[in-house]
Amino acid sequence: MLKIYHSQGARSLRVLWLCEEMGVPYETAEASFMKPSDEFKAVNPLRTVPVMQDGDVTMIESVAMMIYIMAKHGPTDLEVKPNEAGYADYLQYLMFGEAGLAAYGNPLVGTRFMAPADQKENWTAGYLKGAIMKRLQWVADKLGGRPYVAADRFTAADISVAYIATGAKFAGIADEMPEGIKTYVQNLWQRPAYIRAAAVK
Ligand SMILES: N[C@@H](CCC(=O)N[C@@H](CS)C(=O)NCC(=O)O)C(=O)O
Questions:
Q1: Do 59 and 108 have their domain in common?
Q2: N- or C-end of the chain: fewer Cβ atoms within 10 A?
Q3: Domain-located, residue 81
Q4: For residue 11, with 0-12 CB atoms within 10 Å meaning exposed, 13-18 middle and 19 or more buried, which class applies?
């Protein structure tokens, strides 16, 4: 069975959500990047969350984990195939959710919680916030009120992109997200699979 080192609100949410959508069984193990256990430090010296183990496979990138699970446990409509309309959008948003959005959030969260008081509102924090908001506005404009980012159906690309709304809470910028993104995410968060995944402690 898949073992997912998880912390509530961390990117492990993407992996749990995907497993819940697909009905793939998994177990979770506690993972804290603030107070890592010896077990967690041993499986991931980077101490980032999530980590996934499948037999002798260990992975530390959440979007790669989603691709792995869909390939191993599919076929699934959560994946858009190369011969389908929307394939390029799917691939791009699957990556963009991490590389174009969430990755900008890490230094912002770090600055918010760990920087000395006089450096919390520094230039770089402002730049990161602007970078995220600019990209979120781009997604909102592309969506144009539609409920999904690719192929006119719910896919793993939505799971990837929607994580930014959870990360934004930690970064203290959730309220400032464009209205189009708030609406998009609120709709996705109604899914029973999301509700189950988000409740996992
Ligand atoms: N690109 C990685 C990023 C993992 C990551 O940075 N996770 C956050 C928690 S959501 C973390 O562990 N932050 C602590 C750190 O960067 O040291 C992924 O998508 O899995």
A1: no
A2: C
A3: no
A4: buried
Residues having CB closer than 6 A to ligand 1 are 10-11, 33, 47-50, 61-63, 98, 106
In a domain, 168, yes or no: yes
Kind and range of the H or E element at 108?
helix 103-114
Q: Which residues of the chain have pLDDT under 70?
A: none
The best mutation among 33, 108, 114 to test binding of ligand 1, ranked by most ligand atoms within 8 Å of the C-beta, falls on: 33
DSSP bridge partners of 6: 30
* Residue range of the domain that includes 121: 87-191
The encoded tokens of residue 71 equal: 């390939």
Q: What is the pTM of this model?
A: 0.97
pLDDT in tens, 15-26: 999 999 999 999
Number of domains within the chain: 2
Q: DSSP character for 86?
A: T
93 with 23, same domain: the answer is: no
Residue 166 belongs to domain with CATH number: 1.20.1050.10
